[in-house]
Amino acid sequence: MLSIIINHYKSPEVLRLCLGYIKKNAPLDSEVIVSDSETVEKTQDMMHYDFPEIKFLPEIKNIGFAKSVNRGIINAHGEFFLIINADVVVPDKEAIPKMTAYMRENLDIGILGPKLLNINGESQPSCFRFYSPKTILARRTPFGKTPWGKRELKRFLYTGQTCVIHRSDLCICPKPADWLMGSALLVRRNAYEKVGPIDERYFMYMEDVDWCRSFWAKRWKVVYYPDSSFFHYHFQASKKKNAILDILTNKYARTHLTSAVKYFMKWGL
What pLDDT, in 10s, does the model give residues 18-73? Predict the structure, then answer.
């Protein structure tokens, strides 16, 4: 059985869209769990009246991505966990079965991630090399415009490879990746039981990087799987180029940098 765990925060209409496609395109024997943070009345009513068959886990406070997903996993019974954010849409019936079949054929894979698409159908970066402090500088400051910064971004995004992962016309086969964006992950239960839950010291950002690194540390592969595509209505609330201004004015940027410090303290530079 497959457990689909949907992480949601105060966007009930987006969640409704996500659940509509899940009901239409997920395998029939799937269980669906919505782990909700800072639950609002509109979400509560929608789940009660429109989706009563779905397990709904409300929470008064915003508990963050890691705790929300971990709570969903605790309530799950499947052989695999498909973890998605509520802003992800599964567009066809073949996407999920192809992923679970590939996992069953490749028993050394702990996490498998689909190709993510923007609304316009363009491929969205979703798999990356591990961060270094230079990556943070290249993504958040003018250093990214220098030859050294551009080289670091190519390393981080895999764009310096013969197979450019983020170009669907150039990468058509599964590829190991250091880490995958946590917006959509298929996780093997018995690998999870050896690796453990997502580190809840991260409130938001870097928890997916950390978790994937923990899977690799336990010798479980993390693999990008472009044969299945999900749509992801992604909004980058923290990405700017003026690091000082970001820290002063953008709470998402501050959270990202705080999480990066925790990550480097845990894994080294």
Answer: 999 999 999 999 999 999 999 999 999 999 999 999 999 999 999 999 999 999 99
Q: Where are the alpha helices (DSSP H) in 119-242?
A: 133-140, 147-157, 189-195, 207-217
Q: Mind listing the domains of the chain with CATH numbers?
A: 2-129+171-239 (3.90.550.10)
**116 closest CA partner among 231, 234, 26:** 231
Q: CA 53 to CA 259: how far, in whole Å?
A: 36
- Distance (Å) of CA 190 to CA 3, 79, 102, 197: 14, 8, 16, 12
Long-range contacts of 261-264 (CB under 8 A, 24+ apart): 262/201, 262/202, 262/206, 263/131, 263/202, 263/206, 263/209, 263/210, 264/131, 264/133
pTM attached to this predicted model: 0.90
List the helix and strand counts (H, then E) for the chain.
10, 12
